[in-house]
Amino acid sequence: MTTVDKKDPVLVVVQLSGGNDYLNTVIPYGNDLYYDYRPSVGIPQDKVLHIDNEMGLHPNLAPIRGMYQGGNVAIIHGVGYENSPRSHFRSMDIWHTCEPDDVGTEGWLGRVIRELDPHKENVVTGVSFGPSMFRAMAVPGVPIAVVENLEDYGLLPGISMADQRQRILDRFSRLYGPAIGRGPVMEFLGQTGLDALRGADILKIAPKNYSSTVEYADTTLAKKLKGIAQVHLAGLGTRVFYCDHGSYDSHAGQPSMLSVLFDDLSASIRDFFDDLREHDAADNVIMLLFSEFGRRTHDNGSGTDHGAAGVAFLIGDRIKGGQYSVMPSLKSQDLQQGDPVPNLDFRSLYTTILENWMLIDANPIVGRAFEKLDLVGA
Question: Is the pLDDT of residue 171 over 70?
Answer without folding.
Answer: no
